[in-house]
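Annex B. Sample input.
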Amino acid sequence: MIGGAGPLRVEAMRNLLPFVGALVVAYLALCAWAFATQRSQIYFPTPAANHHAAVLWVDSQGERIKVWSVSRPGPRALIYLGGNAEDVGANLAEFTSAFPSHSLYLVNYRGYGGSSGRPKEAALVADALAVFDRVHTAHAHVAAMGRSLGSGVAVQLASARPVERLVLVTPYDSLVNLASEYFRWLPVGMLLRDRYDSAHHAREVVVPVLLVIAAEDEIIPMRRSRALADMLRPEQASVVVIDGVGHNTLDRSPEYLQAVGSFLGAHR
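Annex B, continued. Sample output.
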């Protein structure tokens, strides 16, 4: 009996090899699928919409970026970069009321809301830089506000241009870390092309930063937002946690835009 155990084990291993091989092939196929489809899982372009606001067209790398604009007298302006499935124009009425001393520029990403092209990280950042350069010619003091996906664009904008104040709404430290929360069984660090490494770029941001966190955020765990805040100097970052709201219900709390308006109101 003892002498026959070795051959039995070898035979069992041989029988398992096809099963293990099939699992490996299936896992590699899943990784290939995730790599090939990743941008369709990150970006959800919104169709063109009609809003009661002027349109500023900005040329960027051969594409035309549609920017909703509300002009106000004075040197202050706010550039808004929204979430991955957001019609940014839907914010016009509330922002117009909440930020009366700022001209507003709400950016439709490439492929979103009438802008041409297709979204990807390098393109969205390039477009944000182009919008800033255009806005800055008319406004001496420009703040930037990024929500969710847009927080990753806004951080890179503030690291490369003289943004005077930065607002990050439901932000994350990096898309790699965020994706790892959902796909622990995938090597997301190897697969992701668009990484939005805000924690890295935050080191180059030197202006005051407001981070607005939804306490019940079911999309971006609070630890990912806190991890980004930890990359900023304590005297540089202000953190507001709003209770009772989630990722997509933050707008229901008046505290949200009140906090942003107060922060922008301190703008010199």
